[in-house]
Each structure stands twice: as C-alpha cells, then as structure tokens.
Amino acid sequence: MTITSFFKKLLIKNKFLFFTLITTSAFASLDGIISPYIIGKITNTLSQKNFNDIPRILILYLVLMLFLNISFYLWQFCWGKIIKSSNQFLRSRAFNTFTYSPSESKMANTLNFINVNVKQIENQCIDSVITLIYCIDQTIVSLIYILNINGIAALVFLFCGLLPAAVPRLTRNWIQDGTKSWNQSYEIYNLKISDAVHGFNTIRHANAYTRLKLFIKNALLMEERKYFFMNFRRNTSNFFAQVSYTFSMVISLAVGSFFVVKGQILVGGLISLFLASDRLTSPIISIVNITNQLNSVRPLLENTVLQKPEPRQYDNLSFVNLSDKKKIIFDHCTLGYNNHAILKNINFEIFEGDKVLITGRSGIGKSTLFKSLLNELPLIKGKILIDKQLNKNNFLSNFGIVGQDTYIFSESLRFNLTLGKDIPSSRLIKVLKKVKLEYLANKNYLDTQIGDKGLSLSGGEKRKVEIARALLNKKDFLLVDEGLSGLDDNSRKQIFALLQSLPQTIIEIEHIMSIEDKQKFDQVINLDTK
C-alpha cells in the first residue's frame, strides 16, 4: 500500500472530516500574518504618534486571536478524529489480512504491526500530512501578505525559502533505506525475544541462560544500531535544511534593510516583512522535514500484513451422492507437501456417527490428512469424496477441531464458549454439564473471567471447553488432533469417555493408544502400514 492509496481510502471514508480539517487549517494558518501585521501597524502608528488608533488596533488583535484559537481548536479536533479512523483502518486491515490466510509465521509480524507500526504511521504519516497541509496554507498566506508589502522582496524571500526544498530530493532514498533496514532488524529482534519468552521452560531445563542472553543481546544491539542510524540519517537531512534556512533569514533581513534605506518601506513594514518572511521560510523548512518523515514511513505501509494474499483454493473435494450413511471417502489419495509424497494410496470410508482412530509414528502424516480433508493442503493424487448433504451451506462449518493446544481467551467463560455469539445461558449450562464441567455450570461462573488474568483451567478442563464450543455450534464432525496428549491419566480418561459418548462422527488422531481403547473405535487406521 502506498501513501497515496492509503490516504485515498481514508479520504473516501471521511470526506466531510477532511473538508473541515482543510478549512480550519486555512483559517489557523492566518497565524502567520496576524502578529506581523499588528506589530508592524502599531510600530508605524507609534512612529507617527497616532496614539488614538492604538486601542482600535488592540481590539482588532484580540478578535483575530480569538478567531485563531477557535480555528486551532476545531482543527485539532478533526486531526484527532482522522487519527482515530486511520488507526482503526490499519489495525482492522492487518487483522483481517491475517485471518484471511493465518499461519504461525505471520503472527509475530502482524502483532508487531498492530502494536508498534500503527503508532509509527500515526506519528510519521498522519501527523506529518496534516501538518503539511497547515504549512502549505501558511506559506501561501504569508507569500500573499509579503507580496502586498513589496513584490520584489516577496520574490527574494520565496527564492530563499525554496533553497531547503532541494534537501529531501537528495536524501530521500538514503532515508528510506535506513528505515527499511531498521524495520527488518526490529522484526528479527521481536521474533527472537518472543521465542525466548515463550520458550522459557525449555531454556531453563537446558541451562542455556548465558548463551541465550548473548543471543538476545546481539539482536538488540543490531536493532538499536539500525534505529540510531535511521534517526541519524533523518537528522542529517534536517540539519542541512536548517543551514539553508539560516542563510535565507540573513538574506531576507538584508533585502528588507535595503528597501528601508531606499525609503520604499517604513520601519514597521520592515518588522512586518521580516516576521512574515520567517512565517514563509519556516513552513517551507517544515515541509522539507515532513517530506523526510513521509519517505521514512513508506516501508511501513508497504508491509505485507496490509497486502491481501491471493486466495488458495485446492480441488481436493468432490461432492457426490453417497449411500448407506457414507459421509467421507478417501479414494486412492496421495498426500504431502510441495509435491513431496508423505502418504500414498490412502483408502478408507467414514460413516455417519463413526468413531475413527488414526494412528502412526510422529511425522507419518496424520495432521497432513486432516489438512487435506479441510482443503488447506492440495492432494498430490486421488480424490476425497464427500456426501452432497455436507455441502448445503459451507462444508467446513460441519467440523469442530479439538487439539492439544486449546486456546483460552482472557475473557469470560461465556465468551470462551460462544466466541461472541448470542446463545442463551440455559443452553450453555446444559452443554457444560454434558462435558462434565458441572462446577462451572451456573450463571455466576458464566460471567467469570478465565485465562491469564482470571480463573485458571487445567489442561483437561480446557479440552472440555473446546468440545463444548463444538457442541454449541452443532458440529456434525469432530476432528481430534492429539486431543489426549499432555493430560494426566484421570483427565485423559474423562476426555476419552466424553468423546466416545458423543453422537457426532469422531475422527481422532493419537500417537499412543492402548489396545483396550482401540477396540472401542469403529475403525482403526494405522498409517504406519500404508
């Protein structure tokens, strides 16, 4: 996304707000000439000893300054509303892009953009562009005012004011490269520190503190070094712009003095001219600095988290009429990644209400089978035949997933069960009892916060919550991916018995299962023999 396309989207959503912002900005820009005009007017009036005109000039000054105060207030109000709209748009866009094609590899970048980059864009892009509009308005107003005092002087001041404008053209690519370099190093550091925090137990058990601290320290030093040089490049560009500004001010004063000596303007006119020239050159310097800011923010808006990925649609499934309560048939399927076969010639049928166990050693392709069924990975060969009745609405809506890493939101138990859907409390209580969470099955616990900042749930209780979610959403199929893994014996037995008691079709992947438990399934598919 470019800066131009970003602002086009904001403008379409906030046309009236931008119109009001530009209007109030134009009124506020009169600040550049009101004070020079009044000071020059009073100087000439005092020089000419027209003391009776002073009260009238002061009243005019008071009225004009109150008008400016109101204009600035409305301008800043619109500014805040535009920032609000921008942040909402960017964060929503990043999150929606992630949900469109989620993956573990995109998590860190997406969170970094939402938590850090959006604020950088606010400071370096939104604030900069709004200030840029104000500076352009002030430059135009000040130029018109100076032209009214002395046309030749105005042209000289304009030329001097434009000298710094050459700086951003010379340093633009240099600044952009610095920002890109820092952004990449920050993402690397953020990923490493996230790994260190989440992998704390692994580090502790391996007694790898010293090595890891050095690892993180080196990443931090690199990130801070890139950050320093990013700001150094920006400040260097601003320094040369300030040097140009210094020369322009001296030239402006010299030209004004020349016209006083020649008798073409009065001393009050010189004061007005000099003050107004500052209001002409200062905005031009600000425009240079803002241009540098916009150059540095461009890589942030080009982040991949804002780019909607191409939809991946795989033709794994064929919807046909199946008889005898058959629901799913794997027909001579070869499964794998990137045309590398992991499982070959897979053939089996699943009937309505079946309890199917899929076993095999680690890495054999058990989870790959699930992903192929859910159309997340392409089949290399073969077809998965699906009963047409399962495609009335959305095929994937038939499936609930129970995994070994159940995610619990730091919200109420009610939210964790419904995920925001409007489901009556009586139904929630009924389902909680069904999944053997009787002690939570009352209205008081439904609105109790659970998760990191609330009621702590055991691994078995988390699995039961996930099963309850699937039951509440009336899923006909439950795909259980190592759902018994990591549980103590008692919890494991409870979850296993619960899954066996459900009327839904259960397709369960387990690495280890006793012979006694295997006998309770309608089918046992051992992928090690395939």
TrEMBL record:
Q: List, alphabetically, the PANTHER family matched.
A: ATP-BINDING CASSETTE SUB-FAMILY B (PTHR24221), ATP-BINDING CASSETTE SUB-FAMILY B MEMBER 6 (PTHR24221:SF654)
* Keywords annotated in UniProt: ATP-binding, Membrane, Nucleotide-binding, Transmembrane, Transmembrane helix
Q: Name one GO molecular function term.
A: ATP hydrolysis activity
The protein in question is named Uncharacterized protein
One Pfam family of this chain? ABC_tran
Question: Where found, per UniProt?
Answer: Cell membrane
Query: How does this chain sit within the bilayer?
Result: Multi-pass membrane protein
Instruction: Name the Gene3D superfamilies on file.
Output: ABC transporter type 1, transmembrane domain (1.20.1560.10), P-loop containing nucleotide triphosphate hydrolases (3.40.50.300)
Taxonomic lineage: Bacteria, Bacillati, Bacillota, Bacilli, Lactobacillales
Q: Does the keyword Nucleotide-binding apply?
A: yes
* Principal cellular location given in the protein's record: membrane
Gene Ontology cellular-component terms listed: plasma membrane
- Domain (ABC transmembrane type-1): give its ranges: 19-296
Instruction: Indicate the transmembrane segments per the record.
Output: 16-38, 58-75, 143-167, 239-261
Q: Which domain of life is it from?
A: Bacteria
Where would I find the ABC transporter domain in this sequence? 320-527
